[in-house]
Amino acid sequence: MFGLLMYGLTLLTMIGIYGVLTLALNLQWGFAGLFNAGIAGFFAVGAYTTAILTAPESANHLGGFGWPPLAALPVAMLLSGLIAWPIGRICLGLKGDYLAMASIGIAEIIRLVFKNETWLANGTMGISTVPRPFESLGQPWGNAAFLLLVVLILVVLYLAAERAWASPWGRAMRAIRDNELAAAAIGKDVVRFRLEAFVIGSMVMGLGGALSAMYFKFIGASATEPLLTTFLVWVMLIIGGSGNNRGALLGALVVWLIWSGTELFTNRLPAEWITRSSYLRALLIGVLLIVVLQRFARGILPERPPRRID
Amino acid sequence: MVGGYGGMDILNGVDLAVEANEIVVIIGANGAGKSTAMKAIFGLVQLRAGSVRFDGQDVTGRLPNALVGLGMGYVPQERNVFRNLTVLENLEMGAFLKPMTLARMLEQVFTLFPVLKEKARQPAGELSGGQRQMVAVGRALMAEPKLLMLDEPTAGLSPLVMEQIFERIVAVNQAGIGILLVEQNARQALSIAHRGYVLATGRNRLTDTAAALLDNPEIGQSFLGG
Amino acid sequence: MAEFINLYLLPGVAVGCIYALGAVGISLIFAILRFAHFAHGDVMTLGAYLAYSVVIALGWSVYAALPFAILGGALASMGIDHVVYRPFRRSPGIIVVIASFGVMLVVRSAIQLFWGVDILSYETGIRRPIPLFGDIRLAQKHIIIIAASVVIAAALHWFLSRSRMGKAMRAMSDDADLARISGIDTEKVVRWTWLIGGGLAAAAGVFAGINTKLHPSIGWDLLLPLFAAAILGGIGRPYGAIVGGLAIGIAQEVATYPWLSELPLVPPAYKNAVAFFVMVAMLVWRPTGLFKGRVL
Prior knowledge:
C: mainly alpha
C-alpha cells in the first residue's frame, strides 16, 4: 500500500514537471511558432544552477552557497533567460529549421560545458547532493508536499498561459506565427514578440530543470540527455495538441503514463531484456510520434480560438 | 473555370480555348486573373468549378507532371531556369520524361535558338534576361508539347530583345505548336496572335480575333496605351 | 611543423571527409524536400553497425563490408521515406522535422536493442602510422578514410554531372517547383535523393567508426558539424557541402593546436563548439553559404 502511494506520488510529480516543460514549449512553438530543439540546454542551466546554489559544500564541484531551495528557483529561471536572450537575438530572424539547428547546437554546447568542466559540476558524475524542499517531513509527507509545490507552480503557469493566450499579446503572437509579413505590416514588432516568447519559454524550461534536479536530488549528464528532455517534451506537446495549454498538459500526462506504464510491463521481461527495456520504450514513443503526426497532426486537444473575455 | 488560392477566388468564371496551331493571347489589367487562369489550366491552382480539357480528354486536377507527358508545356514568368545547371542540362531536364528523343529535340531547339548552342556549357544563371527566357522556352519545347503556355515571356526585357522573343514565338508556332500567351505588352502580342481574350476581374470580358481587338477603340484605350 | 601536420591537419582532413559525406545528404534533402533531416546522424550510426555485423558474421575486413553498409543505409533511408516522410509531402517542412525526431528515436533505439550499448570496435590492435615523406606520417585509418572518400566523391560527381537522375537531382535542389512544372518525375528524384543521401551517410558512419569507436550515438554526436557543413557550403549545393565538411573538419582539429600557449587553443572536448560558431556566424552573416545556396 505504501509502495503504491509512493509510486503514485512519483508518477504525479514527474507528470507535473513535464507539464511545466510542455507549457513552456507550447509558449514557444504553439504560441509563437518558434522551433526550439534545445530544451535540454535550458533545462540543464536551470538544473545545474539550482544544484550549485543549494548543494552542500564539496571538493568535487562549485558550491557551498547554502541557498534555500525555493530561493534558487528564480535564479535558475533568470540564468536560463539570460542564456536564451542572446541566442534569440541571433537566431529568431531565421526560419524554423535553422532555429532548430542553432538551438540544438547551443543545447549540446551547454551540456558539453557541464560535462567537461569538472570544477563546476563534477563532470559526468554530476551533483548528487541536491536538497529537496520539505524533505524533513519524511516519507510520504515530504514527497506529497513537494508534489503540492509542483502542482502549485503548474497551476500558476497554466493560468498565466491561458490568460496570455486570450490576451492581445497572445493574439499578436499567433498573428506573427501564422503570417509574419501581415503582422509586421500592421505594426507588430515581430522580433520583440518572438524574443519575449523565446526568453520566457526558456526561463520556464529552466524552472522545469530546477524542479527536476530537486526531485531527483541529482543532476548529471545522464539527466540532461536530449531524449528525456528535448524529444520527450516535443512528443508530449505534439500528441497533446500544440497551441492548446490543456493539450500540452494532457500530452505530458498521457505520454508519461505510457512511458512509465511500459516500465511495469518490461519489468516482467526476461532478465537479459530488462536492461534494454528503456530502448524499447524509446522505440515505442518514436513510433507513436510518427503515427500521431500522420493520422491526427493536431493532437488530442487541437488548438482552438480563445474564449472572449468581456 | 472558377478558382483561386486558399479559399479566395481570383477566377470567377473564365472560359479559354486554344485550337491546334493557334497563337492566343490573354490580356487584361493587373489583377484580372491572367496568370492565374494559366496556372489553373496547368493544375497549379485549385479549381472550385469548371474543367480543363486537352486533346479531347478531361485533365482537370491532373498534376503538372502528367500534363507535360500529355503534351502541355508551361513557362512561368519568374524563376524559370535552373540557375546552377548549364544551358544544356536545363534543356535535358525538359526531356526528362522522354530521354529517347533527346538528341533530335536538342537539334530542333538549337535551330530555333542558335544562341543557346553557343552558351550550352554556361550555367543558366549567368545568362542575360532574354537568353534565360529562351532557355526556359527551349526547355519546355524539349518535351515536344502540342500546347505551349507562356506567362509574360517579355517581362523586363528591352524592346529589342522583346522583338526577338516574339519573333521566336511565331517560329515555334510555325513548327505546329499551339501557343497561349499572357502578355502586358498587348499591342505586340496581339500583332502576332490569331485570337485574343480580354479578362477583367476574373471573368471573360471580350473575345475576338487579334485584328479585331487591335482595332477596338475600347481596348486601345485601356490596354494598348491609346 | 611535422607534428602539426601529423596530429592535427591530416586527422582534420579525415574527419572532414566524414563530415563531407554526411553533409551532402543533409544539403540535398534540405533543398529537395525542404526540411532539416535530424535523423541523418542516426542513419550514419545504422551504416556503421551494419558494417560491424558483416565484419562479425563473415569475418571480413571493415573495408570489404563498406559496400554492404552503403547499400543498407541507402535502402533503409528510402524505406523510411516511403513509410514515414512521404505522407508529409504537402505538409509544412517543420512538421516533417518533428517526424524526423520520431525516426531518430526509432532508429537509435532499434540499434540499441539489436546491437546493445557497449562500445565496439571493427578491429583490435594498433597499427603503426606509415611514413609519407620526411617526418610526415599518416595513420593507416586516415589514409583509407581519405582515399575511400575521394573515390566516393568522384562517383558522386560522375552521378551528379553525367547521369540524367543526378542532373534532375541538382535541378530539383535548385528549384523544386520549377522541376515539377518542367515535367521531372519528382517522386522518383526524391527516392534517388534518399538512396544517395542514405548511402553516403552510411559510408560516413563506417568511417566514423573506423576513426574512433562504435557506439549508438556516434552519428548523433556528428549531427551538429554536419548541419554546420551543409550551411557553410550552401543548402542545395552538394559540392559546397563537401567543401564545407572539409573546412569544418579541419577547423575543428586545427583549433585544438596549441597556437598561443602550451595549451590547446580550444580544448578537444569543445571541438563541436567550433562547428557551432561557424554555423551561427554563417546563418547571421551569409545564410546562403559560401557557394550561394538557397535559404529555405
